[in-house]
Amino acid sequence: MSLRTIYQKARLCSSFLSVTKKEAVWGSDNRLFGKVAAVISRLNNRYGEQRNLMRRKAFTLVELLIVISILGIMAAIVLPLFQGNLQQAKEAAAKDNLRIFRTAIETCTARNNGVPPGYPNNDPTQSPTLAAFLGGLLGPPHYFKRIPDNPLNDDFVITIIDNGVSFPAAADGSTGWIYQPATKNIRLNYPGTDSEGVSYFEY
Predict the structure, then answer these.
(1) Alpha-carbon distance 124 to 35, whole Å?
(2) How far apart (Å, rounded) are the C-alpha atoms in residues 21 and 182?
(3) What's the pTM?
(4) Would you report the helix, strand and coil content of the chain in percent, each value rounded to 5?
(5) Which residues make Cβ contacts (< 8 Å) with residue 114, sequence separation at least 6?
(6) CA 182 to chain centre
(7) pLDDT in tens, 122-179
């Protein structure tokens, strides 16, 4: 039972006693009435203190506006820093994945007597295919367990450029990577520049 409920019932009891205190039940002895009145007084004081404490714990509108303003300022400062660090982490991961790709292509080429991965049956006179490229890197001796993603667009699909076809001058972002077996050139297929103004395509 809450303190407020006890207080209300005690006040009802006080009202009843004030009406009946002169009856035979009480006689001339007012000591019991005095005790009840004292109890009611203590309850009144405690209930009043509880209400004052609740009022002291509550925030005013001005205090809430100040807190909201401070949080907004902190978010405006921290959020750009967080976004900048996240973008730099993606750029570093993209460079690292390119390095891994290029190392695997050079290693595979050396093991295949100078034929880069991507040609069916290791025959450079044929048109390169994505299946042959994946087979060369994912098959024995397993240069990759899986093709790395382009961290900038989370895409692992590779655009294969045929023999005699010029390598694209710019990225279109339609896939994760662009690769030409004839030149062993592999690049990020992602337009734009990094945090230092360098084109992703030129990594």
Answers:
(1) 108
(2) 112
(3) 0.62
(4) 55, 5, 40
(5) none
(6) 42
(7) 999 999 999 999 999 999 888 999 999 999 999 999 999 999 999 999 999 999 999 9
